[in-house]
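Today's session is about reading a structure prediction critically. Students often jump straight to the picture, but the first step is always the sequence itself: look for stretches that repeat, for charged clusters, for runs of hydrophobic residues. Only then move on to the predicted structure, which in these notes is written as discrete structure tokens rather than atom positions. Here is the chain we will use throughout the hour.
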Amino acid sequence: MFEQKGNIKAQYGKALLENLSKDLRLIHGKGFSRSNLTYMRLFYNTYPICEKVSHKLSWSHYVELLKINDDLERCFYEKQSILENWSVPEFKRQKKASLFLRLASSTDKKGILKLTCEGKKVSQPSDLIREPYVLDFLKIPEPYHISEFDLETRLVNHLKHFLLELGKGFAFVGRQYRITLGNHHYYVDLVFYHRILKCFVLIDLKKEEVGYKDVGQMNMYLGYFEDEENVPGDNPPIGIVLAKEKDELLVQYAMHGVTSQLFVSKYQLYLPNEEELRHEIELIYQENNGELNKDNKKDELGDENHF
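Below is the predicted structure for this chain, in token form.
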């Protein structure tokens, strides 16, 4: 900033950073490339001296954060990187998969602001759910023809990436977990244990649209695990039916009266459309602002009637 005479941007060409880079490298050695100096200047402008930055994040983390133009989005990824202890490659993958946009598009304006201030914290079963889950790391081209067993096998083979997509706190227990009832064997596709919520998490994979029988079957699995697998200190298990498609109305009726620990969510094998997600978030802001304006008008009318 001294070299720029207090200006945010240099007013006298690119030569400044190039010359400064050469001088600093002669004095201090590596680490002062023109690119690094550009990010150092951006860091200075983005994070004022009065604002404390986290020692848990490396310079490489901050370089990736500085590439995000939206302040709210950047704040979320900063908080979430700290909460989940993401490495730089993990952080880049979550950003590429539009994690913030996916989470924000399924909440309201207050929820979005909470995400940016605190990150995504897990305190109840619904906090685990994402819509949709992005499984692009499986590298399955579309159109595709793959069985549920093959999909499960690929997820296990890419378990590190799948755990990152699921979020913090998941520990893998096993696949094709056998349940025996009345001499009949049933198999839960994937079983995890969530160390924060202290409960089993059961995942059943569906290569096509979820049906009402799938919901009933998962409900049976949850009952079995709660009675037969839980030990003292365990909370009731959580079930996730993960399908390529779902009919919202069918799911609503199929889950009528069913435990609140059961969820139906979609997965997709490709990265989400960022523009569409941003448009959804913009609509959320508009709708919430509309509601706030209506409430304000009611209050004004109430005041007029009072007088």
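Discussion point for the tutorial: Residues 205 and 242 are 5 Å apart (CA to CA).
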